[in-house]
Every structure is written in structure tokens, then in C-alpha cells.
Amino acid sequence: MTRDLTIAEVRLTPILVADPPLLNTQGVHQPYTPRLIVEIVTADGITGLGETYGDTKYLELARPLAERLTGRSVMDVNGLFGIDLGVDESRVQGEVDAGGLRGVQSADKLRLSVLSAFEVACLDAQGRALGLPVHALLGGRVRDAVEYSAYLFYKWAGHPAGVTCEEDDWGAALDPAGVVAQARRFTERHGFTSFKLKGGVFPPDEEIAAVRALAEAFPGHPLRLDPNGAWSVGTSLKVAKELGDVLEYLEDPTLGTAAMAEVSAGTGVPLATNMCVTTFGEIKEAFTRDAVQVVLSDHHYWGGLRNTQRLAAICAAFGVGVSMHSNTHLGISLAAMTQVAATVPGLRHACDSHYPWQSEDVLTERPAFRGGRVEVSDAPGLGVELDRDELARLHRRWAEDDGALRDRDDAAAMRLAEPGWRQPVMPRW
Ligand SMILES: O=C([O-])C(=O)C[C@H](O)[C@@H](O)C(=O)[O-]
Ligand SMILES: [Mg+2]
Asked: Can the keyword Metal-binding be found in this entry's annotation (predicted)?
């Protein structure tokens, strides 16, 4: 049967999804975080799904792009990446992503962060049309399931009093005992066996104690600590020395390739990053200086699933490990992450995913973690279906918001609890 894979319609739906009060070095998560759901509909009625950041700067680029796609083919993914979105470099000059959690902002990274959702939607549509899973379109899977790590956060029991939010049942985690209790809940609920603690929240000694407590509670399990660049080189080396016997890797202890290279030269603990290598242009210097031993890819800002494979191939050529970064995302992205991770040979570190923190989704069925793994679906496309009622409900929340939550701002969310809070000057410790 021949199919008409011409794009007939592109639907963009910005939504706000509930997020618990997770702490990081910049502040705390807002009670609701913006995401953008992309639907690409072909002439013969197939719909492909994609998901990316929903903040205004992404929406402003996604909207005109969506209008330009009608009449093109979902097969023309290379052509998609040739479209000039007209991102003005001066608009992003000197900016950092998500208040400093995902490295530098650049015009190209902004462009790729939008295109990635459209690429995923095209691949999903292709797969549905051909009756093939996305991983088959990417060359086929080399594993049946993808391992994820439990993403532990220091956390308040609830958002500040008076703030509209959804309740969560994770409780508070503000000291080593709380972190261990949270890790136990992750294993009970999802079977995770490797653990990452988001650090940079409390002075390093307190975070060292939390990782030590995890090591005692889960002897021999892979552990990671990620302060998002909050430490000086000296502090990073001190932490590496104190935790060297239990860490799988230390993630972005300090900011910038030069400082990471200095830390790397002074410790045997592998360094991972989703901050100093976030674009292809940053690879050469970091690898030449041996600044990082593991790159955490993220298909959202690296520009999709095919770019993720390219990054993995470059890392392999340089003997650098690869794994995956995550921030707040829904099941469409988890399915996309799982499909591409299934195709990457030599993936030796469990991938990050925030998904267990998300109580809401726009899918009829949530992808499940079993034994800390997500099974690789062989269903056509991404193997997920949209729940239109939920999509409409979460969009209504976005439409009714006065604008306060439409752009993620962890420092602003923190000021609701601590009015004097300012984005910390780095290094914080
Ligand atoms: O470095 C990381 O792993 C992240 O930036 C992940 C997330 O952005 C996380 O820190 C968050 O959302 O608070
Ligand atoms: Mg990180």
C-alpha cells in the first residue's frame, strides 16, 4: 500500500504539568512546569508525537516552524533540519539554559531544542505508517530494555503555603536519612538500582554525608552526585577524594571546560557533564583536554534522536562514555529516550529520567519502569498514544495561567519561600 506522508497539519499544544518542590542549586521547581506537545498529522491521517520545552522562547520559534511544515513530507527529516528558524544570536548572547542547569544558550542550541520535537514527531509518524518502531528506523535496537537511575532530589514536603499546586506523596528529603528514605521509595516503586543525587543545594559536607548514607544503605550500587557546577576546583577535588571509593562518577562539579579539566587531572573519579559539553562545538576542547569522561546526552537540546546517535559515535571514537541527561519531561520524551538509547552500543551508565516525579501525563498509558528499566517497545512509532482529555486539561491550565509559570524560573519559585533569594554566584562553595 502506498501512503501519503505529506504533512497536512501540525498541532502545537503548550501545557503546564505538575512538578514537586525539587531543590537544585538555582532554587526550586515551580509547582507547574511548561512543556510543548507537537502533533504532526499526515494527509492520510497518521499523527506523530513529539515533546519539548514549553517556555515562551521555544514556543515563539515552534509556531512559525509549524506553519511552514504543511506540504512537506514526514520522511524529509534532513530537510527539516535545513529550515532556518531565524534565531537571532544577539537574543541569546551570554545566556545560560534553565537558569544555569544546562550550560550555555546559543542560537543553534535554541533552534535544535525546537527542531528535536518535530524530528521525533516525524519519526513517530514514519514508524506508524510503516508499522515499525522508531528504533528500527534508527538502525535497530541492540538491547531489549534501557536502564534508568533513580533521580534523587533534596525536596520539601510540599510547595510553599498558599501556592496552588498538586500534592505529592514523596515526603520531604532534607538530610541523609531523608535522601535514603527517598531512594528506598524509588526502589520499591520502580526497582531502580543506581542512584543520582542532585546536589549543589547544601554545603558539600552535608551532601557528602548523604552520599555516604546511600552507600551504606545500598552497598556496591552505582552512585552519582551532581551539584550543577556549584563548587570551586578545590571543593570538587575535596569531594572527589572523600567519595572516590563509592562514586560511579561526579557530574559537573564545577563550571566550564577549563575548570573541569583541572578537576579531572587531579582525581581518578570519572567526571560526567550535561553542562560543559552540550553542543557539538564544545566537544573538541573538552575531549582534547580530557575534561570529561562521560557525556550526558539529551535529545531535546542536542537536536533529536539522530544527533544523539551521532554524539554517541563521537564519544565512542574518543573513548568517552555516554549516557542521558533529563529534566522534567513526560512519557512521549521517555519513549523517545528509550527508543534511541536502545540503539546506542556501549551504553554503560544508567540514563537519567525525571519521569517518576511526574504524576501527570498526556498518554493513555504511562511507560513503566520495571527493575529500573523501561522495556523497548516494538509497537509502531514510539508506541505511545495521546490522551486528548488530559492534553486539553493541562492546556487549559496553561491558558488560564497569568504568565507567571509559563517560563521556568527556579529562582523565582524559591523567592516565594525565601523572599531574599538570588541566583547564586558560582562557585557557591
Ligand atoms: O544537570 C542536570 O542533570 C540537570 O540539569 C537536570 C535538571 O535540570 C535538574 O537539575 C532540575 O530540573 O532541577
Ligand atoms: Mg547534570
From this structure: yes
